[in-house]
Amino acid sequence: MTGRLADLEARIASIKELHDMVTAMRGMAAARREQARGALAGISVFADTILTAFGEALPLLPAPPPAPDSLPPGPRALVLFLAEQGFVGTFNEPLVEAALDPAPPAALFVVGTRGGQLAAQRGLPADWSAAMPSHLPLVARSADRIAEALFRRLAEGDIAAVEMLHARSQEGGLTEVVRERLFPVDPALARPAASAVPPLVNLPAGRLVERIAEAWVGAELTRALVEALAAENAARVAAMQQAARNIEEKIDGLERDARSLRQSEITTELLDVVVGSEAANGGE
């Protein structure tokens, strides 16, 4: 019985080490979630500045842009933001399902290695893929890479419009699946010009609007990456919290078993002492 108790105590110690590791992963994910959420305000200010410039540049065009709800005919691309790593529960599944509805896109740009594997298994192989940045300082570089790949395909004529699909974490641990138009930029988003005086420009109006649209795409990709990063880590926090609870319940059960074994050993030892004492007295 002593050997069994020793094995049980060793198992408890091992599971407690696992609990410490899960707790550390939860803390790291929570820190990254909060860092990402904290960056969103600054990104919004940057995006608003671009939209103000957009509103000042649009009136310079010789013809008004297309109606807000119209997209050019032709194949559409989808930028799908998924999880880079595991331990996120069912985070990827609703995003992949949404990408398939109503039909797979003509071109799929997948950001997120682990989620990309699931997408491929569900019949959504990526035409272009990249890792989801795990740290906030890497987001800007990732946004530039995605924008470069998108504009290359647009220039080649392979695609005519681009949408994004990503997760957005909400209060209470809920996650929202968000589909957004990325390109062409919706003219309805433009902020009204702050002044009736036309701005001074040194580019043709068409090229100026194109440059502002490119900046907007970069800002939107950055925002989507940050929201996806926050949502992935929020999902990981929830998964680690559930794992910690399961481990704690397991430890409680094992410790009850260990206490029972210790009590049994004590009882056995006492009985041995009593029996031995009685035998010794009887021998006298």
TrEMBL record:
Keywords: ATP synthesis, CF(1), Coiled coil, Hydrogen ion transport, Ion transport, Membrane, Transport. GO terms for cellular component: proton-transporting ATP synthase complex. The keyword Coiled coil applies. It comes from the Bacteria. Gene3D superfamilies: 3.40.1380.10, ATP synthase, gamma subunit, helix hairpin domain. It holds the Pfam family ATP-synt. GO terms for molecular function: proton-transporting ATP synthase activity, rotational mechanism. It is found in: Membrane. Its main location: membrane. It is a peripheral membrane protein. The keyword Ion transport applies. Residues 237-264 form a coiled coil. Produces ATP from ADP in the presence of a proton gradient across the membrane. The gamma chain is believed to be important in regulating ATPase activity and the flow of protons through the CF(0) complex. Belongs to the ATPase gamma chain family. This is F-type H+-transporting ATPase subunit gamma.
